[in-house]
Design a protein that fits this description.
Its EC number is 2.7.11.1. Keywords: ATP-binding, Kinase, Nucleotide-binding, Transferase. This is non-specific serine/threonine protein kinase. The chain is 32% helix and 15% strand. With 416 residues, it is α+β, with helices and mostly antiparallel strands. The chain has two domains: 147 residues, Phosphorylase Kinase, domain 1 (2-Layer Sandwich), CATH 3.30.200.20; 242 residues, Transferase(Phosphotransferase), domain 1, CATH 1.10.510.10. The strands form three sheets. Strands 1-5-6-4-3-2 form a six-stranded mixed β-sheet, sandwiched between helices. It has a two-stranded antiparallel sheet with strand order 7-10. Strands 8-9 form a two-stranded antiparallel ribbon. It is globular, with a radius of gyration of 22 Å.
Length: 416
């Protein structure tokens, strides 16, 4: 199967002509099925017949049907415009858990059709595979993928399951605990720095990404990957790093690359075709109002409506995620309001180096951390750190916590 916008690239893809909604063998147990469906209906307000058909279907992960029957959907993890995600668990005959996987099912996207209207491999899968092969440990791992070639074609991506949930879940837990106990407990700075450094390493790999490792000739020029929807709900928390150099906190895993693109500053599609991609409150200034943010300023700094997005787009969204961790802001509401208000404050912004936060400080976190977050969130992209600087500054910020951990074996606890 071809890859969109990458001439000459072809992948061998597992293809199924059956319906993805063939019922799983475990659903023959009526009581177990009713019990799970009842729980999902109570827990998921968006649960409906379509979600149920997905949850009760077989995994299609194993070639042998008998082997595949060992997989059962044990949870529904999410539903959105992209499709649905569920957790499938593999049990042996005694009921012992052998494996877990997250299955993401989505309809064939019109963006993933070639010039002749034929399906191509999702850009999401291509970029994730390339990042994995390049050694990026901060991307949600893709295990397999399958195309369902029917009247309504669909994709299933089989992803590593991460038991600690998302950054969004972590923030919600702290908020709920604070409200319940009437306290102001915050996420430890040591974890915030480690998450920041994880993000920075993902950003670096996106900047230098080449596709040769997956058998695709990389286009000429300085190409890079843009995520375009890097928000707390799309950032998973995996197991702690295996090496003893790192503090044993969960590792940041950037997920949901469904909006992602592989591009360059000379790409005619960048940013004309992507202005609507992503979630509005998480968009950096250069993407807001269809690229018209600040266009009436006396000294416009964002380059105009069709100015291409650079890696500074990613840096801004990383800064927004870290600000959310520090302030327990779930939906980027604080930064969204600040950026909206800042558009009418050009002169003040210029005096403060185009910082919307204007001297950000916190009574919970160090000035080194708040200063770096402020720099990432500057309205003028040219004043934000580049991926190399971000790696260096987060490494320096994390160093004093890792040194203390090596000396004492102790670290502030993260309440998961």
């Amino acid at each position: 199967m071809k890859v969109r916008d990458l001439p000459g690239a072809n992948f061998r893809i597992a293809t199924t002509y059956n319906s993805p909604y063939d019922r799983a063998k475990w659903t023959h147990d009526g009581e177990r099925t009713r019990r799970r469906v009842r729980r999902w209906r109570q827990e998921k307000e968006w649960y409906d017949g379509r979600v149920e058909a997905f949850a009760l279907s077989r995994s299609y992960l194993e070639l042998e049907r008998e082997e595949d029957s060992m997989w059962e959907c044990t949870d529904i993890l999410g539903r959105g415009a992209f499709g649905m995600v569920g957790k499938w668990t593999k049990f042996d005959k005694t009921g012992r858990v052998l494996d877990d996987v997250a299955i993401k099912q989505s309809d064939l996207d019109d963006r993933e059709l070639d010039e002749e209207g034929r399906p191509t491999v999702p850009t999401e899968a291509v970029l994730v595979k390339a990042l994995m092969n390049q050694g990026c440990r901060n991307v949600a791992k893709l295990r397999e993928m399958r195309f369902f070639d029917g009247d309504r074609p669909k994709w299933r991506l089989y992803l590593e399951y991460y038991r600690y949930g998302t950054l969004h879940d972590l923030i919600q837990k702290y908020r709920a605990r604070n409200k319940r106990n009437r306290q102001e407990d915050r996420i430890p700075e040591a974890f915030v720095w480690q998450a920041f450094h994880d993000f920075a390493q993902a950003c670096y790999h996106m900047k230098v990404l080449r596709l040769d490792s997956i058998g695709v000739r990389s286009p000429r020029g300085d190409h890079f990957a843009l995520h375009l929807d890097l928000k707390a709900e799309n950032v998973l928390l995996g197991d702690a790093p295996a090496n003893q150099k790192s503090i044993p906190y969960p590792t940041v895993k950037v997920a949901d690359w469904g909006m992602a693109e592989y591009t360059s500053l000379d790409d005619s599609r960048n940013s004309k075709r992507w202005k609507k991609y992503g979630t509005i409150v998480w968009m950096p200034p250069e993407q807001r109002d269809f690229g018209r943010y600040g266009e009436r300023w006396h000294h416009p700094v964002l380059g105009g409506a069709n100015h291409p997005y650079s890696m500074k787009h990613v840096v801004w969204q990383i800064g927004a995620n870290i600000y959310g961790l520090m302030n327990l802001d779930i939906y980027n509401e604080d930064i969204n309001e600040v950026i909206n208000n800042a558009e009418g404050m050009e002169n003040t912004l210029r005096k403060h180096g185009y910082s919307a936060l204007m001297g950000y400080r916190s009574r919970f976190y160090s000035s080194e951390l708040t200063s770096l977050v402020e720099d990432c969130l500057r309205i003028d992209p040219s004043r934000r750190p580049n991926p190399y600087e971000l790696v260096g500054r987060t490494q320096d910020g994390l160093a004093r916590y890792t040194e203390k951990y090596h000396q004492t074996g102790d670290h502030p606890k993260l309440k998961l």
